[in-house]
Amino acid sequence: MTQTITPQDFQRLCQSGQDVELIDVRTPVEFQEMHVEIAKNVPLDRLDPQRLQQERTTGEAPLYVICRSGGRGKQACEKFQAAGVTNVINVEGGTMACAAAGMSMVRGKKAVSLERQVRIAAGSLVFVGSALGYFVHPYFIGLPAFVGAGLVFAGVTDTCGMGMMLARMPWNQVASPGGSCALPK
């Protein structure tokens, strides 16, 4: 079971003066758009729980995980737990809830969220497949059926293959001087 913390409790914890380590598992572009001031970007598709645990600066203190709204943060926590790291806590509601709670945020250039990109891509594939099935050949109906099956799978397993592929696209990357998205020492 994934442990969680409310944005309000997390804000109080940050203001208490304790060392708090927070990783944001969104894509670099999403992170660049807006993130909690103390967050470090470690995208979910590049998350290596064992290596990250070895590089941590706060030892055995809890590691807090955040994403846009909570889903990817939960997946990251499950990855940590599967690797034997149990002191991870997901921030409920993600970055959006922290912003609404009044936490200190870093804001940059606007970007299209990964969730929105998935909706655009899935809707486009369904529309094109349906049109091709009607106007060109009925076999093209397989495309919207495949997308629909993928969406059902994503809903049941809480993992999204299309989202993982889109996260690796060039428009979801940012140039970094060191080329690494690992947690800095």
N/C terminus separation: 29 Å
Poorly predicted tracts of residues: 177-185
Q: SS-based structural class?
A: alpha/beta
Taken in chain order, the helices and strands follow as EHEHEEHEHEHEHHH
**What proportion strand?**
5-15%
Q: How many E-type strands?
A: 7
Helix fraction, binned, reads: 40-55%
Oligomeric nature of the chains: single chain
Shape summary: elongated
What do we call the CATH homologous superfamily of the largest domain? Rhodanese-like domain
Q: Give the C-level CATH assignment of the largest domain.
A: Alpha Beta
- Radius of gyration over all CA atoms, rounded: 18 Å
User: In CATH terms, what is the architecture of the largest domain?
Assistant: 3-Layer(aba) Sandwich
Let me know the largest β-sheet.
5 strands, parallel
Number of H- or I-type helical stretches: 8
Spatial order of the strands forming the largest sheet: 1-6-5-2-4
State the CATH topology of the largest domain: Oxidized Rhodanese, domain 1
Number of domains: 2
Q: On the 0-100 scale, what is the average pLDDT?
A: 90
Protein name: Inner membrane protein YgaP
Pfam families: Rhodanese, YgaP-like_TM
Organism: Anatilimnocola aggregata
InterPro entries: Rhodanese-like_dom, Rhodanese-like_dom_sf, Thiosulfate_ST/Rhodanese-like, YgaP-like_TM
